[in-house]
Amino acid sequence: MTPIRRLDAVASAAGMRAPVAQDRLHAALRELLPEADWIAAGWRCPDAPGMAEGGDGDAPGLLQRALDDEAGLPPDVLVESWDEGDARLVVLARCKTPPPAQRLQAWRVAARSLVESGLQAARLQARLQALEQSRRLQKALYEIADLAGGEVEMQEMLARLHGIIGSLMYAPSCYIVEYDDQRDTLRFLYFADDRDPFLTQGTREWSSDEMAGTLTLALLRHGQALRGPSRTIRQPLGLPLAKEGHGSESLDWLGVPMRRGDRVCGAIVVQSYDRADCYTEEDRALLGFVAQHVQTTLDRRQAQAELERRVLERTLDLERANRELQDEVVERQRAERLQHALYRIAEMAVSSESPAQYYAKVHAAVADLLYARNFYIALLGDDRRSIEFVYSVDEAGEERPPRLLGKGLTEYVIRTGRTLLAHRGDIDALIADGEVHGPGKVRASSWLGVPLRLDGEVVGVIAVQSYEPAIRFSRDDERLLSFVAHNIGTGLGRQAAQERLRLAHADLERRVGERTGELERANEQLLAQIGERLRAEQRLTHQALHDALTGLPNRSCLLDSLASALERASDMAGDVPGFAVLFLDLDRFKVVNDSIGHAAGDDLLVAVARRLVSAVGNDAVVARLGGDEFAVLASCKDGIDGVHELARHLLSVIGQPLWVAGRELFPSASMGIALWHPRYRSGEELLRDADAAMYRAKNEGRDRFAVFDEAMREQAVRSLDLEADLRRAIQRREFIPYYQPIVRLEDGVVAGHEALLRWRHEKRGLLSPAAFIALGEESGLIEQVDWLLYEQVIEELARGGSDYISVNVSPRHFRSPDFARRLLGLLDDAGADPARLRLEITEVALMDDAPRTRRMLDRLRDRGVRAVLDDFGTGFSALSYLHRFPILGLKIDRSFVAGLDAEGGREESLALVRAILALSRSLGMDTVGEGIETEAQRDTLLQLGCSAGQGYLLGRPASCRRR
After folding, report:
1. Hey, which bits of 436-485 come out as E strands?
2. Which residues make beta-bridge pairs with 403?
C-alpha cells in the first residue's frame, strides 16, 4: 500500500471510534518502516486527545518524554517531532539496522502526513462528539420545556424528567428534592432508586435533624455541586458514614443544587451503585444546566397550581361579592327612590306656591315609597294647645277638623316625641292602658305616625294608616317615613324662614338705602385719602431715586438709566451712535468743608449741580453719586470729539467763580470718561471705568479730563493680578530681606545693616519694593508683608553678631495699638537682643497721632529698641517734633547727598546737609548719609561731620549680611 493510500485510510477512520482509528494509524506507520522493531506515534492537543503506540514496554515512556520535549532519548530511536498550531506531534521508531537515508527521508515525510491526518481525524471525532452531546442536551431541554407547559400530573412529569436525565448520563437512580431554607426542611418531590426501596411521599417534610449526616442535606447547605464516591465526598464535609435507613453507599455520586436567585431551593442527585467514575466534570456541568431548567419547570408548575388555587378562591369571592352586590343594588335602588323623594320634598318647600300645594306634593312623594292611601299632616297651633290637620286624605272619608289636644294617637306621638308603629292589637293595648281614647268612625288595622320637628321641638305629626288587615306597615316603612318627616320638618322651617326672609328683605332695602348714603360720603373721603397716599408714594419714589440735597437723580436712578441705554445700544448696535458716562469729582472739596464748614460745602454742591444741569440740557442725565462725585450720562451724537467738547465745556462751567458763605471760591473738577462699548454688560462696569479715568486725571494735575482706554484696563488688570500674586506670596512667604551695610565713614567699619524688602516672584524673579509697595499700601497688605520681614530679621539677630539691623516701619503700624507688644514678643520668642534692632520711621509717622506714636516709641526704647528718622529733610513739619520724640539719629535723604557733587545745585545741597548735621549735633543724634555712590560724596559728608553712610559705593544689598 502506498503512503497516499495509507493516508486516505487513516482519514476515513475519522468516523470510527478513537481506539480503532489509532490502531489503524499505528498499522499504517508500521507498514511504512517494516524493519523497525516498534513504532509509536502521538500528539498533545487540547481539542483532540489521543495517542498510538506499539513495540516494547519503554515505547510509551519514550513517547511521553518526546511529547514533553525532553532530551536524552536513546540513540537507536528515530525521532520525528513538530508543532502544528497549539498541537505537539511525535513519531518514534526503534531500528536495529538503520534504513537507507533516502528511505528514511521518505518515511519521515509519510509519517508526518499520516500523523497529521490522524490528528485531524481525532479533532473531527471530538467535534462530532461535542455536537452530538449538544444535540442531546438541546433535545432534553425542549422536552423539559414541553413538560412545563403540558397537562401531565406532577409525578408523571418528574418521572419523564428522570428519563430525560437518563438520556444524557447514567442515571438509574435519581431523586429531586425541594428545600425551604427559612424553615430548614426538605421534601422529596421524586425518588427512584434501583437498590434502596427508601422513600417517601412527596407531601412528607423532613426536618434537618431527621436528615442530619446525609449527603443530600450537606449538598443543600454547601450550595455547590458534589461529585465522586459517597465515602470520598463525606470526608472533606465532615460527615459520618451513611446511617441505616438513609440509603447505601454509592460508587459514584453526583448532586447539583437548584437555585432561585442566590438562594438554594432544591437539588437533583444521580448515583451509581455498580459503576465507578461514571460521572465526569462534563456531566456535572450538564446536570447543573439541566437543574436550572428543571427548577424553572417546577416553578412554573407550582405557580400554575398556585394560580389555579387563587383563581378558585377568587371565583368564590366574586360569587359571594356578586350576591352582596345584588343585595346592595336593591338597597341602593330603594335608597335612590328615597333620596329622589327627599330631593323633591326639599325642592317643594321652595317652589310650591302655597302650603296646600306643598302638602299635596309631599303626599305624592310619600306614596312612591310606601302605602299612603290614608295620609294626613297635623300641626300644633300657635298656642300649643290645639292641633290642626293641614292636609288629610282618607279613603273612608273620615273628617279631621281642628281640635284641642286630647288622647288620640296623634296627640300620643306629640306627647312622647317618638315614632309610633301600632297594629290593631297594639292600639287596643294603648286604649286599655288609658294612653289613647277609643277609635273614630273607622278602626285602623295598622297605624304609623312620625313626629315633625322644627328647631328640635315637636310641631306636628305625619301619619299613614291602613284599614285592611292584609296591609301592615313595617320597620322599613317606619324608617322611610322618619326620613321624610325630617325633610318635611326642614321644609316647614324653610317656609318659615322664607317668610322671615321676606320681612328681613324689606327691612334690608331700607337699611341699604341708608347705608348707601353713608358709603357715598365715606367714598368721597376715601378718594381724598387715596389721592394723598398716591402723592406720598410719588414723593417717596422721588426720594428713593433722587439726591435729597441737590434734587438730582441718585446712583440707583442713574444705574436704571444706564441699563436702559445699554439695552437700546445692544438692540441697535449698528444704528445707535452710543453714549458716554462722565464721572466728575470736585478738587480740594475737603478743604472747603474743613475751612468754612459743611453748610458751605453743601451750598457749593448745590451750585455745581445747577451748573451741570444747565450745561447739558434735557438730552443728558446728571446724577449725584455721593459726596462730591457727580456723573453725566450723555449721548455721542457727534462722536468722541463731541464728548471731548462736552467735557471741556463742563469743566469750564464748573470753574467759574462763585460766592459761598461770604467767600469767593474757584471750584474745579477732575473728570473721567467711559465710552460705550459692546463689552459692557452693566452700568456698574461703565461707572467703574469712568472712575478709574477720573483718578488718572487727578494724578495728571487735576482740573482736566481723561478718557478710559485699553491701557488703563490693562493697568487695572495688572494691578488686580499683582494683588492676587501678592496675597499668594504672603501665604507662601516669598518675601525676604536683603541687607545693605551701614559703614562708619572715618574707618570703613560696618556698624550695621538696613534690611531692605525683596519679593522672590515665581515668574518675574526678584522684585524691589518700587514694583509692589504702592499696591501693598493701597490694599492694606503691606502690614502682613512687613511682619514677614520682621520675623526673618529678628531670627537673623538671634544668630549673633555685634552690629545692628534697621527695618523700615510704615505709619500704618503706629495706628495699631498692639504693634509694640507684638514686636517685643517676636524678640522675646527668638531670644534676640532688642538693642541691636532699630526702627526707621518717616516724618509722617510723627505727625499722625503724635501722642500715641510717642507712647509706642517710649515703650520700645525702654526695652532697648531705638528709632531713626528716615528721609530727613523731605518733610515739612517734623523739626518741631525732634526734641519731643526718643529719636536716636537722622538719615539724610539721598536727594541731598546726590547734589553734593552735582554741577548745578551743589551749594544748595551743601547748605542743607550742613544745617541737618548741625541740628543733629545740637540734639546729640547720629547721622547716616543715604545713597552714597561716589567718593566725592563720601569725602564731603566726612568733612561735614557725618558719622556713617550707606550706598552702592560702600556696599550693595545682599541676601546675607557682612559680619
Report:
1. 446-454, 457-466
2. 387
